[in-house]
Amino acid sequence: MKKLIIPATIALFAAITGGLSFWSMDRTGAFESEIAAYEQQDRLHPPKPGCIVFTGSSSIRFWDTLSDDMKPLDAINRGFGGSQLFQVNRYATRIVLPYRPRAVVVYAGENDMSWPYHKSADTVLADFRKFVNLIHATLPDAWIFYISMKPDPLRWSNWPALARANKMIEDFCRTQNRVDFIEVSAAMLDAHGLPRREIFRFDGLHMNAQGYVLWTSIIKPVLLSRLGPQN
Description:
Layout: H1 2-17, H2 32-44, E1 52-56, H3 58-61, H4 66-69, E2 75-79, H5 85-95, E3 103-107, H6 110-113, H7 121-138, E4 143-147, H8 159-174, E5 179-182, H9 209-227
Parallel strand pairs: 1-2, 1-3, 3-4, 4-5
Helix pairs in contact: 5-7, 7-8
């Protein structure tokens, strides 16, 4: 029995962290190989300036159909699994700002507030404020969209804290120019107010294709309303 439990536990943890080791997740340079791979990809196939950059943790990284889902908008995926908001800030100068995007869409904060970090909502809000300042210091006309943290079966016990943080971030977005909050959490709950398991993978954390169809139906109209179709 132990031989079965240990590999299963390791596999589940790898799914939660996006494949990173526990001890590397808070270290400077933990995502260096992933970021460098994006930079190499950019050298071979440079994105067009003025695209829409999606960045953040594994919910973005695993969105394999993102570019097609967002058409006719020109969008690229620069997510890196297991990341926290402070790490999104750290790497924005390498995988966000160089494209001079017309908009940036970010999903991050859930890892910050969950095991093993359990950061406060105030800390997550402060890091998002830094993200907004970082982007607008260089690109004052760019739109910034924050996708609300999602309710999922694996972290359901932590949902009240995530929901409070969502509300704080939404309130902050309302005070800022060209910053929008995209609410996805309500549509991810069933009639009983519980996470819809059919839109999640086996791990109860990451979404499956059905989940991304749902996200597309919510996020894309918001982007189109703010940015309009691109030629």
